[in-house]
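Is this the right way to post structure tokens for a design question? Let me know if I should format differently. Anyway, here goes:
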């Protein structure tokens, strides 16, 4: 079941799909990105993000892809739309499947040896997970598989994304109200790290605070109560 905290986001993306199916032949990928941006701003929804604020709305095409394919079941009957407007997202998912199968070097090669593209593939799994279309185990498996690689760039991506995922889930917990104090925050952070099951630098409070503010609109009073006065 989709968490309450994401229902508004998914509703907006569903509405965008309604517009796309009516006009897809006459619009571009850039037009779709602009549609997402305008709809998010109107509805006070922030893009999913970590530290990197570059191309935030273009990255939200992954959210649109996931909702269209797994939430609305549009892929089979509307493949022409996906091929025209979301071809990159299809490629990210193909790379993510290679990661999950344990073929991480092949995945990295398919990503053009780009850590950014590899992270986009992980974002595909991440989005499926937070929207409750897949279990968190799928995310953990992908991160563990990447971390087992002897390639430094692949290993770095696993550690970096693990830190982001941990920070995001902590921010989500603060926004939902399941994390209300420092003790619960620390316990939850340790629990997430154990679930991921690899060694990686745990996120600092400023990283969690940034996501809580910029994605979930959590106010300073709440952040100060949970994370301390320095946020």
């Amino acid at each position: 079941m989709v968490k309450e905290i994401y229902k508004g986001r998914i509703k907006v993306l569903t509405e965008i799909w309604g517009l796309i199916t009516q006009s897809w032949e006459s619009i571009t990928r850039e037009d779709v990105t602009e549609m997402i941006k305008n709809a998010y701003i109107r509805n006070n929804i922030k893009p999913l993000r970590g530290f990197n604020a570059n191309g935030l709305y273009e990255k939200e095409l992954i959210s649109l892809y996931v909702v269209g394919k797994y939430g609305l079941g549009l892929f089979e009957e509307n493949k022409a739309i996906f091929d025209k407007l979301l071809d990159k997202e299809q490629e990210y998912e193909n790379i993510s499947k290679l990661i999950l199968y344990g073929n991480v070097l092949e995945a990295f090669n398919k990503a053009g040896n780009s850590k950014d593209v590899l992270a986009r593939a992980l974002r595909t799994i991440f989005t499926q997970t937070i929207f409750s279309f897949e279990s968190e185990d799928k995310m953990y498996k992908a991160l563990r598989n990447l971390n087992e690689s002897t390639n430094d760039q692949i290993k770095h991506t696993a550690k970096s994304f693990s830190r982001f995922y941990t920070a995001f889930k902590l921010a989500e917990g603060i926004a939902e109200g399941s994390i209300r104090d420092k003790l619960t925050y620390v316990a939850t952070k340790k629990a997430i790290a154990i679930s991921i099951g690899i060694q990686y630098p745990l996120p600092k409070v400023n990283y969690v605070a940034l996501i809580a503010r910029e994605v979930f609109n959590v106010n300073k009073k709440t952040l100060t109560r949970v994370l301390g006065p320095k946020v």
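Format looks fine. Someone answered above. Worth noting: The radius of gyration is 18 Å. The chain has one domain: 4-227.
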